[in-house]
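> example.struct
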């Protein structure tokens, strides 16, 4: 039942304020695994884990200074009503869910299979965020994804790390446009922004 997103307010205090917790959205988003802020500080992205911990999804707050106001947040991936399901795990079900009964209806697959382990915001465009998905090798849908403000794109397809979980993402501060991609047991890769 626990988990959530909290902020020190003010930062120099010992007072923690709740942004998201089990009470905010009926325990739908509570297992926060990744956070990323745009270079100008105006966008805050949050990635959550599904599995047995509510909904795995991508959330965005366009005014982090008012992050405690739930009206400032929007769901970019895996909304509670299943209208936004960009990862499409149901098209490539893991071997133990082929009958689609593990989590009930097929509509639930994306919400529960999604585990956004890492995030990195494009330093030159705050509307573009890279996502590292992990699902412990159960599906080829895991890997590197890119959201451009309108649609989600799977960048791991036909790559050496296709079907490999992405644990960490970081833009190289010394080489503009270079994204470092850390995988789950398959090494570290470099992706040049020109490829996108």
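> example.seq
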């Amino acid at each position: 039942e626990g988990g959530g997103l909290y902020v020190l307010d003010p930062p120099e205090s010992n007072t923690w304020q709740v942004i998201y917790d089990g009470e905010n959205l009926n325990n739908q988003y509570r297992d926060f695994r990744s956070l990323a802020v745009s270079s100008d500080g105006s966008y805050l992205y949050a990635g959550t884990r599904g599995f047995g911990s509510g909904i795995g999804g991508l959330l965005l707050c366009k005014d982090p200074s008012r992050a405690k106001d739930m009206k400032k947040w929007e769901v970019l991936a895996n909304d509670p009503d299943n209208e936004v399901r960009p990862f499409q795990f149901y098209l490539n079900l893991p071997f133990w869910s082929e009958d689609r009964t593990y989590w009930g209806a097929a509509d639930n697959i994306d919400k529960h299979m999604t585990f956004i382990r890492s995030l990195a915001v494009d330093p030159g465009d705050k509307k573009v965020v890279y996502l590292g998905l992990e699902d412990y090798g159960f599906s080829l849908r895991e890997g590197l994804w890119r959201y451009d403000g309108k649609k989600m794109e799977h960048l791991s397809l036909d790559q050496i790390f296709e079907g490999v979980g992405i644990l960490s993402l970081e833009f190289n501060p010394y080489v503009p446009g270079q994204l470092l991609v850390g995988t789950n047991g398959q090494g570290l890769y470099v992706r040049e922004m020109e490829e996108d």
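> remarks
The chain has a mean pLDDT of 80.
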